[in-house]
TrEMBL record, chain A:
This is SWR1-complex protein 4. It comes from Alectoria fallacina. It comes from the Eukaryota. The keyword tRNA processing does not apply. Residues 129-221 form the DAMP1 SANT/Myb-like domain. Coiled coil: none annotated. Belongs to the SWC4 family.
From TrEMBL, chain B:
Pfam families: Actin (PF00022). CDD domains: ASKHA_NBD_Arp4_ACTL6-like. This is NuA4 histone acetyltransferase subunit. InterPro entries: Actin, Actin_CS, ATPase_NBD. The lineage of its organism: Eukaryota, Fungi, Dikarya, Ascomycota, Pezizomycotina. Belongs to the actin family. It comes from the Eukaryota. GO terms for molecular function: transferase activity.
């Protein structure tokens, strides 16, 4: 290096690479034959054993970048103590984690005589870290005077009150402990008179509730004494309120119940469990029911409130429901009527759409069955508007008549339709049906089919009536003819008398035809009653009619005798026509049945609903049997018959058309 | 480096609330006395509460006292064994107890020498001679506050003796007296609990609310470890042929024998006049019985009681007969398979007084003494609001609760007695924690920083006298 530096200085060119400063001492290597490990070689050449001889040595001390701080036993005081006890704990030297320090008071030095040396070293003692956790409850403070004026109690002496208050403060108002430690012994009363015995009053047994009541009483009163109610802070006021409201009797009662609860036997516990289960089940079902109802209301188009807060409680009674219905109906009467008018005309265009369960039944069914609920998305702000086709598919109808409560079965309608007042009549209807090759039980009773079926039965009834009439008349005519012949044979001469009866007959005949017309009209009105006409009404009509038939029959029987042959013939001719019509209808029905077969499944009804419905019907049947007038009244008062006038108007119109129709027919017949 | 530094750092006081001040914890029991430093998890010194007495020939009044396992188990001539504790589990012989405790503390814990017998005041006929200055220097515990335990029913003057010994004899700077039931609850981390302590002398039921004992509701009965030992003695005596209990010290040599055959051993004999006192044999027998209890005795865990009927219709005794037995070998080599019924029978009396064996010196227990009855009567004296909490926190402690199946059985019995409440046992699975529950609780309490302000200081003692214990240690 030095050489190169000198050369640099002198500007001489460097002479070869610089030599390393300390040449490596090359150790002579003992080389054995290659391919042998060192250990094996060592064995072979008996060289030094391959053990390095190292003198045992302790691990070197780590060199720390700081000086270790020693620990020392440090004395410390505690400001929570009044006696200046000095304790020692191990702390690192110079650790001043306890910032708080205690001045050494003369009192301390006395107690800590043994630690004088330490104290000299540390003139101030550190305070215990824990002193601040020393929290005490405020003991209610009162003077003797205050006690006399405000706190006196016959049951509690001042001494005992003091004892209680002290004890409560001692145990930080842990009343369970206070009650456990309560051992007040009344002091001996000073002798009042010489000679009288010193009275040692018996210690009164105090329950925890007694103690609490007394303490709270004293504490509340002293609170007010020190700080009037008006100037109390809210928390203080709350505390005061709580204390004044303490009721030991209620507390005692509560504890009694709690004890009873705890001492239940296994059986009682089991029973209670069962009851609770039952209750929860009921509550659960209730909720389900509410939800169903709610869905129903939604369906009915109740203005949707917020779904969570919308309470269905008011609709839980049947009264509530009726009221709701009434409100709804009156509210939407005009609107709905308009709608209905429109719909009816629309329906008339695309064919008669009728029957099926009424709208009410429908929605109820959905809410019960729940299967279709997805299709009828309820939750999205009111019911979905269905297209006419869908309505037809689902059998939705929009009746503007009163709806019967509950569910009805179509098969009931069928059987009802097939039944007349008398058994004979029923069997006759049956016979007529078999004659027409229509099964008594429909194989596919879809809504449409049932309606048509009802119509058919009505027609059959008319037919039967007319048949009966014609038979009677036939007989009559024969009788009359026979009489006539006899009379003609007898009284060839007496011609004056002959004319009279025929006149009478003619008159009566007129009346009769009128009667028949009227009946027919009524029947037709019943039939022609709009498709969305409610079942019940139809039934009522029917029964009304039947009733009137019965009422009328005794008189009419006589008149019937005097029927004219003409009418009879006409009816006989008409009969054929009707039969033809009926057959056509049947064919139609069958086609429809095939079409509607798919929908039928949906229209099946749960069985549970049956009972309710039947009860309703029974009631009505009875009512009907009693009097029609009553029914009329009922209807007027019942909410669903909100439009009696409109209906009667419609009836009148229709009856007028029917009358004209009948008169046309009769004129046809006459022509024939 | 960094780790080395961390290990020397004290744990943050805020973390566990501890602030150790080298306090000592002393937990005297009927069978053993436990002593150790607060903050440790096991007592360092466990000495028998029994002590040996060797009457001196010259002065028969002053017998030589022997303490500790190493000296009281040797059959020294005329040695007799007695206990400083009463059958109630409270201290009876205070003077000897002070010596015993001092032995326990100084032999293992502090390096101070025990007070020389000459100056400990006991052997001094004239007490006035002692000079105060000299006394100060010799006090063995001048720097250690002492926490002592007591039973739940310890009362009156007995409570004051402890502080007198601690302050006068040992010069402790501070003292505290705590109920062992409360401490056992602390050891389980429960401020509110119903502590069931099965020691040697007593079963003690201690309701604890918020760390405070409910004195009036403490119940106890003698059906504990010693009762089980006596049951075993009765069982051995009543079996055919009677099973002899031969303690270790009597056996000089032995050879193995088959089960049920008489022992073949040579026995030690003592020269007349040097035989140990019968109490010594009794004490040694107790050690054998403890061994037997540890390994053979088992609690019938139901269903139902051992004396009851099984679900199949027969008696539970018949069911128990089918259970496997367990072999045990006496110190002299005699051994036998102990049938399951005997294993259950020995302890069944704790639960069912009708099943207890009895004779003239061992009267049958009353129905109110069984553990379930004790718990029930204790609970009935506690405020109703507290009862469900107590039943939900039943702390099991004491070495006699270590019998197999004990906790299950107690759970069953209590749940049957209180079907409407959830009964929960808190029983440590560690034998040390079960045996030394109350000491461990004391160790925790005395090492807490917040406990500093509770200690009764020497100054307070000097001011108020020993009566201060009653005022402070509530
Ligand atoms: N593993 C064990 N199984 C059953 N019992 C045991 C076991 N170990 C010790 N014992 C018994 O437990 C008793 C000692 O229990 P413990 O140490 O809790 O009592 P103690 O606190 O000294 O007495 P006391 O609480 O009555 O004053 C003795 O009777 C002993 O025979
Ligand atoms: Mg114990």
């Amino acid at each position: 290096m030095m050489g190169s530096d000198a050369r640099d200085v002198l500007g001489l060119p460097s002479a070869g690479p610089p030599k390393p400063a300390t040449p490596k001492v090359q150790k002579p290597k003992v080389r054995g034959p290659t391919g042998m490990s060192r250990e094996v070689l060592d064995l072979k050449y008996e060289g030094a054993p391959p053990i390095s001889i190292v003198a045992p040595k302790f691990k070197e001390k780590p060199k720390l970048p700081f000086k270790p701080r020693p620990w020392e036993e440090t004395p410390f005081g505690n400001s929570a103590r009044k006696d200046g006890l000095i304790l020692r704990h191990w702390r690192r030297k110079g650790d001043v984690s306890n910032a708080a320090t205690l001045p050494v008071t003369p009192a301390d030095s006395n107690a800590a005589s043994e630690m004088e040396q330490d104290e000299k070293a540390t003139p101030t003692l550190s305070d215990s870290h824990w002193a601040k956790f020393n929290v005490k409850v405020d003991r209610p403070q009162y003077t003797d005077e205050q006690y006399e004026t405000h706190l006196k109690n016959d049951d509690w002496s001042k001494e005992e009150t003091d004892y209680l208050v002290d004890l409560a403060a001692d145990f930080d108002l842990r009343w369970i402990v206070v009650a456990d430690r309560y051992e007040y012994e009344p002091k001996e009363q000073p002798k009042d008179h010489e000679g009288s015995m010193a009275v040692t009053p018996q210690a009164k047994p105090r329950t925890q509730e007694d103690m609490k009541a007394r303490y709270y009483d004293v504490a509340a009163k002293t609170m007010v004494l020190h700080n009037p109610l008006s100037s109390m802070s809210s928390s203080e006021f709350d505390a005061h309120e709580k204390m004044t409201k303490y009721d030991p009797n209620q507390e005692r009662k509560r504890k009694m119940y709690a004890e009873q609860l705890m001492n239940r036997t296994d059986e009682e516990k089991y029973e209670e469990e069962m009851l609770l289960k039952e209750l929860s089940r009921i509550v659960l079902n209730q909720e389900k029911l509410f939800n169903e109802r709610k869905a129903l209301y939604d369906r009915l188009g109740i203005p949707p409130g917020p779904p969570q807060t919308h309470s269905t409680a008011m609709y839980q009674s049947s009264q509530g429901l009726t009221q709701l219905m009434q409100n709804l109906l009156t509210q939407n009467k005009n609107k709905e009527l308009e709608k209905k008018e429109k719909r009816r005309s629309a329906m008339a265009a695309e064919g008669d759409f009728s029957g099926g369960p009424s709208g009410m039944d429908r929605s109820q069914r959905h809410s019960i069955g729940g299967g279709l609920e997805k299709r009828f998305s309820f939750g999205q702000g009111g019911p979905r508007q269905l297209s006419a086709r869908e309505e037809q598919k689902y059998g939705v109808s929009h009746p503007n008549e009163r709806l019967t409560g509950g569910v009805q079965f179509r098969h009931e309608r069928i059987t009802k339709a097939g039944q007349a007042k008398s058994g004979v009549q029923t069997s006759r209807i049956g016979a007529a049906l078999t004659e027409l090759k229509i099964p008594q039980r429909l194989t596919m009773p879809t809504a449409k089919v049932v309606t048509e079926y009802e119509k058919l039965i009505e027609s059959i009834k008319t037919l039967l009536e007319v048949r009966k009439l014609s038979e009677k008349l036939d007989g009559e005519i024969k009788v009359w003819q026979a009489q006539k012949e006899q009379q003609e044979a007898k009284d060839r001469g007496e011609e004056v008398k002959e004319e009279e009866p025929s006149q009478v007959v003619e008159n009566e005949e007129e009346e009769d035809t009128k009667e028949v017309d009227e009946q027919a009209e009524r029947r037709r009105t019943a039939e022609a009653e709009d498709d969305d006409e409610d079942e019940e009404n139809a039934e009522e009509k029917e029964e009304e009619k039947e009733d009137s038939d019965e009422e009328a029959s005794p008189k009419e029987r006589n008149k019937d005798d005097e029927e004219d042959a003409e009418v009879d013939e006409n009816f006989a001719g008409d009969q054929d026509d009707e039969e033809e019509e009926e057959e056509e209808e049947e064919e139609e029905e069958e086609e429809e049945e095939e079409e509607e077969g798919e929908d039928d499944e949906d229209e099946e009804m749960p069985i549970e609903a049956e009972a309710e419905v039947e009860v309703d019907n029974n009631d009505e049947d009875q009512d009907d049997a009693n009097a029609n007038e009553e029914n009329e009244n009922d209807r007027a008062s019942s909410p669903a018959s909100a439009a009696p006038t409109t209906r009667s108007e419609g009836l009148r119109k229709r009856s007028a058309s029917v009358i004209s129709h009948v008169s046309n027919k009769s004129s046809k017949r006459q022509r024939r | 480096m960094a780790t080395g530094q961390a290990s020397t750092k004290p744990p943050d006081a805020n973390e566990y609330g501890g602030d150790e001040i080298s306090a000592l914890v002393l937990d005297p029991g009927y069978s053993t006395t436990r002593a150790g430093f607060a903050g440790e998890d096991v007592p360092k010194a466990i000495v028998p509460s029994f002590h040996g007495l060797i009457p001196s020939e010259s002065t028969p009044k002053h017998a030589k006292q022997l303490f500790g396992d190493n000296s009281i188990n040797i059959p020294l001539p005329r040695i007799s064994i007695s206990n400083v504790m009463s059958k109630e589990g409270t201290v009876e012989d205070w003077d000897t107890a002070a010596n015993l405790w001092e032995y326990a503390i100084t032999s293992r814990l502090t390096n101070t020498k025990p007070t020389p017998l000459a100056s400990n005041g006991l052997n001094d006929p004239n007490e006035d001679i002692t000079m105060e200055g000299v006394e100060e220097q010799e006090k063995p515990l001048g720097e250690n506050p002492l926490l002592m335990t007591e039973t739940g029913w310890n009362a009156g003057k007995d409570r004051e003796k402890g502080i007198e010994i601690a302050m006068e004899n040992w010069g402790c700077p501070a003292f505290w007296l705590a109920r062992n039931g409360v401490l056992a609850a602390f050891a389980s981390g429960k401020p509110t609990a119903l502590v069931v302590d099965l020691g040697a002398s007593t079963i003690a039921i201690t309701p604890v609310h918020d760390g405070l004992i409910l004195k009036k509701a403490v119940t106890r009965s003698p059906l504990a470890g010693n009762f089980v030992s006596n049951q075993l003695r009765l069982l051995f005596a009543s079996s055919q042929p009677p099973i002899p209990i031969t303690p270790h010290y009597l056996v000089a040599s032995k050879t193995a024998v088959d089960a049920g055959t008489p022992a073949q051993a040579t026995y030690r004999t003592f020269a007349p006049g040097t035989e140990p006192h019968p109490s010594f044999r009794q004490f040694q027998e107790e050690r054998v019985l403890t061994e037997f209890k540890e390994s053979v005795v088992n609690v019938w865990t139901g269903p139902g009681r051992l004396g009851g009927h099984s679900q199949q219709g027969g008696t539970n005794i018949d069911v128990a007969k089918q259970h496997p037995g367990k072999p045990f070998e006496m110190p002299d080599g005699w051994n036998q398979m102990f049938p399951a019924l005997d294993r259950y029978r020995a302890i069944e009396g704790i639960f069912d007084h009708k099943m207890a064996l009895s004779d003239a010196s061992n009267p049958p227990p009353s129905p109110g003494q069984t553990i379930t009855a004790l718990i029930s009567s204790s609970l009935s004296q506690v405020d109703i609001d507290l009862r469900p909490h107590l039943l939900g926190n039943i702390v099991i402690t004491g070495a006699s609760s270590w019998f197999a199946g004990f906790t299950d059985r107690l759970q069953q019995e209590l749940q049957a007695a209180y079907p409407g409440v959830r009964v929960r046992m808190v029983a440590s699975g560690q034998m040390v924690e079960r045996k030394f529950g109350s000491w461990i609780g004391g160790s925790i309490l005395a090492s807490l920083g917040t406990f500093h302000q509770l200690w009764i200081s020497k100054k307070e003692y000097e001011e108020h006298g020993s009566g201060i214990v009653e005022k402070r240690c509530k």
